[in-house]
């Protein structure tokens, strides 16, 4: 059995965007009772990579950390609590975040997916690339649509994917946030809902979650001539979900494949936080939550 580190990593630029992202990061940190690593990534030339441990570069690193510390203190309006740890990275943002996720020590990484006022110039393609390449789950948030509570979580399922690897995180978030789970699947075929494989799979998940004290309901959508992601996005709005949890194809990071149209459409089409489970999915003990 693997044990969680109880840690989140999030990228915080030293600007107004960073202040907004920090507020969202603190919501999840407090609601989930976790600690958080705040990472500022400094763009730099190749010199620091040739000799990162040189005296000159150590001084640069220390000065950058001191500046970041002042920024976070000013943003918080108080001293930095013990459960907030600051780090400095050097280079390109997405590459640095991928390397950090591979290094380990984090349960998931939080990244801003907003399209407007993004001073770091991260495009939707950059965010999608990180979701597909990260070695741990990714929580993508939109700082333009801040949240302060999550009462319901929508979990779209695909009959072609194994769903048990998602159960840990569904259970974890539901219990910590005291949220109701909505399991949803979209069908193109004209078949009685209860006879569909999607419904049978969803019911199995519902029973497993309810056995662990999680409130849950199942919804099968008939999409007809609509795109699956459009039907799911409409349902997310219908139930006023506070968060979405979806699984990426685990092989995407190893084969170089993108996360796919459906997952990308949910991540970027939904203004609410989207938690993507992929990469190297740990086999955590469900009963240890």
UniProtKB/TrEMBL annotation:
**InterPro entries, per this entry?**
UspA
Q: Which SUPFAM superfamilies match?
A: Adenine nucleotide alpha hydrolases-like
Domain UspA spans what residues? Answer: 150-277
Q: Which residues form a coiled coil?
A: none
By its UniProt entry, which Pfam families does this protein fall under?
Usp
- Quote the Gene3D superfamilies the UniProt record gives: 3.40.50.12370
Which family is this sequence assigned to? Belongs to the universal stress protein A family.
- The name of this protein is UspA domain-containing protein
- Source species of the chain: Draconibacterium sediminis
Lineage runs:
Bacteria, Pseudomonadati, Bacteroidota, Bacteroidia, Marinilabiliales
